[in-house]
């Protein structure tokens, strides 16, 4: 099974394309409230069309908009990657992975 054929919700090592897509979403989402991320999610879903047939980057983009929208549902404030525990955990894991022998 190739990276592009991994089912959308199955855990896997993200491809560089998926990482770039998530990073783009996080930059765009910075400062947005739930209402605005929900609109961005809707636009991303519409642009993606059939997600099952979409490339990994497109699926990652939609999934990240969904995750951030869900995160902000009861948050009340704007999105900030610095306070996103998921993002901070990913960054820590990447740093640890790079520094391991």
Distance between the termini: 28 Å
- Report the mean per-residue pLDDT as an integer: 87
Strand share of the residues? under 5%
Q: Structural class, please? A: mainly alpha
Spell the H/E element sequence: HHHH
- The outline comes out as flat
Number of discrete helical segments: 4
Cα-based radius of gyration, to the nearest Å: 14 Å
What ranges have pLDDT less than 50 throughout 5 or more consecutive residues? 1-6
Helix content: 55-70%
The number of distinct β-strands equals: 0
Major beta-sheet overview: none
Descriptive overview:
With 101 residues, the chain is mainly α. The chain has 4 helices and no strands. The protein has helices spanning 16-29, 34-48, 56-72, 85-99. α1 (16-29) packs parallel to α3 (56-72) and α2 (34-48) packs antiparallel against α3 (56-72). The longest helix is centred in the middle third of the chain and has 17 residues, at 56-72. The chain is flat. The model is unreliable at 1-6 (pLDDT under 50).
